[in-house]
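Sequence in, structure out. Go.
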Amino acid sequence: MGPATTKLNYTYAREVLDKYGRNPNKLIPILQDIQAEYKYLPEEIMSFVSSDLGISPSSVYGVATFYTHFTLEPKGKHVIKVCDGTACHVKKSEGILNALEKELGLNKDNKTTKDMMFTLETVACLGACGLAPVVVIDDKVHGLMTPESTLELLESIRREESVNG
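Output:
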C-alpha cells in the first residue's frame, strides 16, 4: 500500500484511534501505527486525528515534526540508509551515496524514486562503526560495503521485485 497507488483509507485511522481509546495522551503510538500503514503521515490523516482526539492540528504537527522517526513525505517501498558518521565517512561512505544517487536518479532534494520503489537517506550514525561503511536497507544492516556491493544489493532487490511484483 502506498500513497501513489491508493486513496487514503480513513477506516484504518479510525481503527487505530479505537485501539488507543481516542486518548490524546497516546498520540505518539497512534502516529506510529498510522505511519506504519501509510509509510508517512499524510496531512489529511493528521487533521482527522487532531479533530477526532479534540486537540489542535498544530499539536499533532508539532509532535510529527519534532521526532525524526516521523516523516511527512511519502517514502518508497524500500528505504536505504547510508551512514555518514565519522567511521563510515572515513571509510568512504560518500562514494556509496554517490553511486546510489546516480543509479536511482536521486539527490539531496529528491530522495524518493518516481515509481515509489526506493527512498535514499543519509544518517549521522547507525552504531555499527566496526562494520564501516554501513548501509541499512529495510532495517537490515549491511557492513563493509563498497559502491559496487551496494549496487549489487540494489539489483537483487530489483530482481526480487520483478519476480514478486
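Check: The radius of gyration is 18 Å. The chain has a mean pLDDT of 93.
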